[in-house]
Amino acid sequence: MCGIVGYIGKKEAWPILIKGLERLEYRGYDSAGIALIKKDGLSVYKKKGKVETLKDFVEKEMEQFPPLLNKERGRGGEVCVGIAHTRWATHGEPSDANAHPQLSNSGDIVIVHNGIIENYLAIKKALMEKGYKFHSETDTEVLVNLIEDIKKNAGAKKEISIDEAVRLALTKAVGAYAIAVLSKDSPGTLVVARNGSPLVLGVGKGEYFIASDATPIIEYTNKVVYLGDGEMAIIKKENFILKNILQNKVKNPYVQELEMKIDELEKGGFPHFMLKEIFEQPKTIKDSMRGRISVKNGTVKLGGIEKIEKKILEARRVIILACGTSLHAGLEAKYFFEELAQVPVLVEYASEFRYRKPVVYENDLVVVISQSGETADTLAALELVKDKKATVLGICNVVGSSIARNTGAGIYTHAGGEIGVASTKAFTAQITVLLLLALWLSSKKGTLSKKEMQKYLVELEDIPGKVEKTLLTNESIKKIALKLKNKSNFIYLGRGYGFPLALEGALKLKEISYVHAEGYPAGEMKHGPIALVDKDMPVLFIANRGHSYEKVISNMMEVKARKGIIVAIITKGDEQAKKMADYFIEIPETSDVMVSFIASIPLQLFAYHVALLLGCDIDKPRNLAKSVTVE
Question: Is 125 a catalytic residue?
Fold first, then answer.
């Protein structure tokens, strides 16, 4: 949540910063702002609304006041130091005043901040007693004034450096943060720090970039340093120093290369990132299994688990921790593990897990799932299970993310950058690697024979082609969305593997179209939801021809008897289900185990087209951010 960008080097900062904000707008878009160091001090521009609003505002200011970006600094004289921010509101409503960057009382220090300072009210009270005044509702303004107060008053004879003031302030702050700080008195220094909120430092030639994730950095350099919790960096044009905040000890940075490609950040001719990412799924599913399966040998190889193979095989049960779409992938995995490997599985909301006293044993395998690898609730749950000495396995999409660094073993999904806030290709990539893990475990435990393994692997290899065929239903789904776009409530129903899909389909519709929808196990319909069914209620069934097919047909008959509107995802050629449905979407025949790969596609496309017809901002739905890095 929220996005930070920063630059120090030889180039003009403004174009780099504004492009970086555009790259990060999926992380937060209530307001945006930018701060530049110029010859006469700090200049701050910020506006409520999206990055485009800020861009228009600053460019008009530049036209009116040409000295804004005059030849003052850098090799060509450009303003070449700056920080920027796109905000997802926590403390204080979206407004110009609450937008970042936030200035100190003197106007000498400026900060951008992701996260929440939990003890800000106590700090604010102490600062107000010293005469500090506050012009926003943010915890961030409190932090920048704490930095200013320490800078002015901590030294015995003179002011201390800006980096030391930041470090000392952070030892007093409680909570999660990623920050970037500039000071008028140290125009050639950019100070950044993180604790519980991601921050990446891009290493160029005579220049450095900072950002909340790698998307604004990749077109300039593929060399990055991921700051760890409790770390800060003091960055100058020539070099940077990495430090531990509490111990004030210099650390050796680990510089790694990004695998991301710049074309992952472009729409590639599609009107929205979400639609592009839906259509990328044949490739991303293939990428997530590439090099990991051998049909001939009936084997699965997962290099990331080699260090803990013995512990996985000895685990008495599996606990899966995740949030949102990743949780639904985990629910699909419950069926994988229990049916194929005969291992008991608990699937838990990571956001609730640590707020009770969960029973976790040392011989449990805990699987944590997060697209970004930075989900705050999942990371907190991860720390809890590590304290209980359980074996932890991470599944994420981002190399170098916090989950990747904080788990002893893991599996990357290889879905590539996902920009649309509503996860699509991340879901199918996650269930790909989860199924591979379940198959690997089944083979090792002997619950599946080599012949059975080969059968599943052959079908898995066919999945990308079946997804391509399913994507051809796009136009017919668009027509169904047109018919139903004005309905205000939907029920999604599925049995077995179809139940997590019902939850995921309902979530997608809610997320991007703001239409109320609920997912239920179809067997629970008579236990409450059927009371809602009437001639105005669409009920969407995952009704593939599988193990529970006859039961689902019975549920459809019950809805039809109450004049509900039936939308059904059915197996191609199923005439019985076709006759019962008011609207139907045909998918290729697939086993129950792998139906989620195929049936998820129409659910994503239906949500997309409803949102499009309703005029919603599909890639940046209101109140949501791509990566939930605060509680």
Answer: no
The pLDDT assigned to 631 comes to 59
Q: How far is 229 from 91, CA to CA, in rounded Å?
A: 22
Mean pLDDT (whole number) for 318-328: 96
> What's the one-letter identity of residue 64?
Q
Q: Is 396 a catalytic residue?
A: no
- What would you report as the CA-atom Rg of the chain, rounded to the nearest whole angstrom? 26
Supply φ then ψ for residue 252, to 5 degrees: -85, 120
Residue 273 vs residues 129, 282, 417, 419: alpha-carbon distances, Å: 49, 16, 10, 6
Q: How far is CA 2 from CA 23, 133, 490, in A?
A: 12, 25, 31
Instruction: Read off φ and ψ for residue 240, nearest 5 degrees.
Output: -145, 155
Return d(Cα 559, Cα 538) in angstroms, integer. 9
pTM score: 0.84
- DSSP letter for 338, please: I
Tokens for 314? 């000895």
Listed residue (162, 222, 159, 156) closest to 192, CA to CA: 162
CA distances for 332 relative to 378, 427, 433, 593, 597, angstroms: 18, 10, 12, 9, 10
CA distance 142 to 134: 8
233: left (phi over 0), alpha (psi -120 to 50) or beta: beta
Which residue among 2, 80, 323, 396 is the active-site one?
Answer: 2
C-beta of residue 470 within 8 angstroms of C-beta of residue 586: no
For 593, what's the count of Cα atoms within 13 Å in the CB-facing half-sphere? 21
What is the C-alpha separation between 17 and 10, in angstroms, rounded? 14
Q: Which of 50, 124, 466, 626 is labelled catalytic?
A: 626
Owner of token pair 């044949």 = 282
pLDDT in tens, 122-157: 999 999 999 999 999 999 999 999 999 999 887 666
Backbone dihedral region of 474: left (phi > 0), alpha (psi from -120 to 50 degrees) or beta? alpha
Instruction: Return phi, psi of residue 523, to 5°.
Output: -65, -15
Domains of the chain plus CATH, in order, are: 3-258 (3.60.20.10), 272-471 (3.40.50.10490), 472-617 (3.40.50.10490)
67 and 144 Cβ atoms separated by less than 8 Å: no
504: which residues sit within 8 A by CB, 6+ positions away? Answer: 325, 328, 427, 519, 600, 603
| Confidence check: pLDDT of 72 > 80 | no
Backbone angles phi, psi at 183, to 5 degrees: -130, 135
Cis amide prior to 101 (ω within 30 degrees): yes
DSSP H or E stretch at residue 84: strand 81-87
Could you tell me the two tokens for 51? 């990055």
